[in-house]
Amino acid sequence: MNANPLTLFWEGFTVEPYAQIAPQVLLIRLRPGEDCHPCCSGCQQHCTAVHDTTIRRVRERDLFQYRVWLEVPVRRVRCVTCGPKLEQIRWLSGRQRLTAGMVSWVESLVRLMPVQHVARLLGLNWHTVKAIDHHRLAREVVEPDRSQIRRLIMDEFALFKGHRYATVVINADTQQVLWVGEGNSRQAIRPFFEWLGPEACAQIEAVAMDMNTAMDLEVQHHCAQARVVYDLFHVVAKFGREVIDRVRVDQSNQLRHDKPARKVVKRSRWLLLRNRDNLKAEQAVKLEELLQANQPLMTVYLLKDQLKELWYAPSEAEARRRWEEWLELAMSSGLAPVQQFARRFKGYVEGIIASATYRMNTSVLEGMNNKIKVIKRMAYGYRDNDYFFLKIKAAFPGKAR
């Protein structure tokens, strides 16, 4: 038995009796074990003939405050099957400059810390750490079973500042991220359906999304039988921006000569847009006073509440009845922003009625978007989207059905 316990760390090699120690650096020299024949990295056969030997300096895991480097004599063997070939070293794959133990240590740290922090901590290049993590993700991210996908949720998130977006698609039943791609146009999301394939596309029953015409048209093109389900949150938010805000501004402009009243209306945006259940007691009182004093604001606020009821209908027939009732009220309101919204809304109503059958929404993705923002912050700006998108897939592997 070799007396030096360090030999246990590097299979097939023994440690030279003297190690060079410099400030913060420990250099350990290895030599091939006398009783260990080199193994061909191609066919894994043991070889006795050595073609040549080169000394490679590689990085090992740190020891206390020391950076540990190894000087490893790497042999090229004369394999009768493969010809001249590098020997196989189990703890040093290929032409790596890091040992398997060091790579494993980097993989463990990068799960918990930003890439930049790990690079600084270990004294490695950012690209080296990123490449290690990229290989880990490619190895660990599981390819979804496309034959089991029936319902999808599609949404977009901000990729960078300046209105650059990416689209994410998840399996509504398992909440696994299936695909992430840059852009939110038809051309940008088409690769997802090409990846899904005609057979899997034919099995899709429903797709939840916001009122994005590009997504809608692409779904109808590839999954003609699928029902599009529009998300409650996005539609109500759109009503708030295009109708309630417009009416509020118009009412504020009409009160130019009544500055106190104009000030109240002008500052009422969040009171009108927030759900009544989320208001504090004093805010609820202010809202009630505002609505009682301003009939147009009262009208659009009640229409907003009634619009939500479309998503809670027990059947598609009831949803359609509620829609017709809401449309009649909107068109008879006398408010141009409401009427304009109702006319445009007619083209999307089938996607709302479908929610009575398919209880789906993008709220799951809204929660995911918060975690995606954390991933972006930890990255300090990923240098390529493939890596970033792999990080997203790894963060949402899905759950068992």
From TrEMBL:
| Pfam families named among the record's database cross-references | DDE_Tnp_ISL3, HTH_Tnp_ISL3
Q: Where is the Transposase IS204/IS1001/IS1096/IS1165 helix-turn-helix domain?
A: 87-136
Domain Transposase IS204/IS1001/IS1096/IS1165 DDE residues, every copy: 153-392
Under what name is this protein listed? ISL3 family transposase
Protein source organism: Marinobacter lutaoensis
